[in-house]
Design brief:
single chain; globular; 5% strand; 65% helix; two-stranded antiparallel sheet; mainly alpha; 4 strands; two-stranded antiparallel ribbon
Length: 218
């Protein structure tokens, strides 16, 4: 007989992120692509809430998450309003309400990406420095995957159209210190939720990238 999988908040969280991401992928491929793309902020918000639930038993988890949120929002504010760190760009309407030009969900996304890549990198080395470099590389990979489709989705648009080299250098400059804080904080892994979420984001945006030419200009 097959063993039953215990239903708890951990398994429910993984099941929900798979359900929402796979539904989005299938909807974009076979259904109303525009409707599912416009639902991306809901997916992102849900992922953020479920991620925070994973650290409910560890107070410093929320401290590191708050730091990532504040630093991410601050860096993005400098980018949008001063052209610093990432270059000249502006956010569109797709990511929802903004604070001084920066969507609140972008702060949440910084938390998601730092934690997911950080948890993955915990398995590659005993050195916190090597882990931080590996996790930062994973963050840059995901950003590079999203950048070509961001203007089409009305997420953000760089002056001149394409993300400049400064954007990726800026990402490294912000992400690497955050990863060092993450790893020196010695947070518990919390199972495979974070690895699943990163994999799903890569799959989701890869599908969007492959469908780029057929996506409506939102």
């Amino acid at each position: 007989m097959l063993k039953s999988i215990p239903i708890n908040i951990y398994t429910l969280s993984i099941g929900m992120i798979w359900l929402f991401h796979v539904s989005g992928i299938l909807g974009i491929i076979y259904g109303n692509a525009q409707w599912f793309v416009e639902a991306t902020p809901i997916n992102l918000g849900l992922s953020f809430v479920l991620l925070l639930i994973q650290g409910r038993a560890e107070l410093k988890f929320f401290g590191v998450a708050l730091l990532c949120f504040v630093v991410g929002m601050g860096a993005e504010w400098l980018g949008v309003n001063r052209g610093l760190i990432f270059g000249q760009y502006q956010y569109g309407a797709m990511l929802g309400p903004k604070f001084m030009g920066v969507p609140w969900l972008i702060g949440a996304n910084w938390v998601i990406v730092v934690f997911c890549t950080g948890m993955i990198a915990k398995g590659i080395s005993q050195s916190y420095w090597v882990r931080a470099i590996g996790a930062t590389a994973l963050m840059l990979f995901l950003d590079a995957l999203i950048e070509p489709i961001a203007p089409v989705l009305d997420f953000w648009t760089f002056e001149g159209g394409l993300a400049p080299l400064q954007n990726y250098m800026g990402w490294f400059a912000v992400a690497f210190p955050l990863q060092l804080v993450f790893h020196f904080s010695k947070l518990r892994s919390g199972g495979w939720f974070f690895q699943n979420l990163y994999l799903l984001q890569v799959l989701f945006f890869t599908i969007l990238l492959l469908r780029l030419n057929s996506l409506p200009n939102l």
